[in-house]
């Protein structure tokens, strides 16, 4: 039954039911259930249908949120999915892992009015799950098959989004990836309790059925160079993300018992997928029974602390040098972690890692306070003299963010220009790099960021690749015509 709109005054915001903490920490399944139709329609009906929809401007993809909320409230789900997927290559994934509290829902007008945001992410997930269940998502059949080939390096969100957009236009697309499964961080970085892997696998299978070819276990530098891909394809897109972990600059930070966040999360995800991981079996990348300290305050740190809880850690502590209000991670993820028993030490920064013959014993932390604002406008943390304290630890996980790998060296392409941060220099509008017909998108250009930004970048790069290839085709046709005269 269709719902009337503008019900935000009479209906409170509500998310799908969340499993109790003591149940959800026993497995790696997603913690939120699905909306039933009545609740999805009801929550969608809370939308105020703003003339200037701030939710849309708060979304990197500029999703037409008010329109598909209206369609959902009216029971027009197939139309809602068509509109949602017109701007988003993976709405079911964004609905699960986007930090909506910092994006669309945070910008929602009725959130600002004090009535609580429309639960946009949950409705987006509901729309797409219904589309899968009802068979509305079909393999891509482009209106014309083009002869041009595009090679994409990286099967993460930017590469997958670009592949879908290019197949829609009829290009032949091959994706190369260093891992044995496609998906990038969607598979190996993000834990199953936020994004179950069959959700990603379903999207990969859709692209394969649409004609996208995947070449896995292929690493540029080991199995070929960028020059090889340029010779094999009419255009190349680099979408490899950033994987080089930032160092922890304190004594003892490189010893046994101190591990990188991505190594830890990848091992956990591989085990969940049924792989045998030697470092996990040996206990190096397994938190079971250990006192775990995670250093960092972003979403990766939240993934690590919540994974450690599920692995059976004796205690999990997160050290972050600023306070809760300045934490870069999602507020919802912090709240979920607290519900699950994680202890947060706010305004605390590591000074050293203590060890003995058996391994790590503690992290020495300095108590911090917030001082003057830095160039970004955030208050800079300052150490409080004489306020050091020890946090007992058997496993320390460094979750301090990621930097690019040395791409020109790895790719055997010194002409590929990079910024002073190591990210690939690409035209701000087209995404083209210093090498003609080679484009770049996602984190390898903008630095470590959100999945939704990678999707946006991949889609835009695909559009500019299309424009460039069509121009080149016209020029070839004109030259052939002149030569024939």
From TrEMBL:
Residues 25-135 form the Dihydroprymidine dehydrogenase domain. It comes from the Bacteria. Keywords: 4Fe-4S, Iron, Iron-sulfur, Metal-binding, Oxidoreductase. InterPro entries: DPD_II, FAD/NAD-bd_sf, FAD/NAD-binding_dom, GltD-like, Helical_ferredxn. Gene3D superfamilies: Alpha-helical ferredoxin, FAD/NAD(P)-binding domain, NAD(P)-binding Rossmann-like Domain. Transmembrane segments: none annotated. GO terms for molecular function: 4 iron, 4 sulfur cluster binding; glutamate synthase (NADPH) activity; metal ion binding. Pfam families: Fer4_20, Pyr_redox_2. Its EC number is 1.4.1.13. Residues 150-458 form the FAD/NAD(P)-binding domain. PANTHER family: GLUTAMATE SYNTHASE [NADPH] SMALL CHAIN, GLUTAMATE SYNTHASE [NADPH] SMALL CHAIN-RELATED. This is Glutamate synthase [NADPH] small chain. It comes from Candidatus Phycosocius bacilliformis.
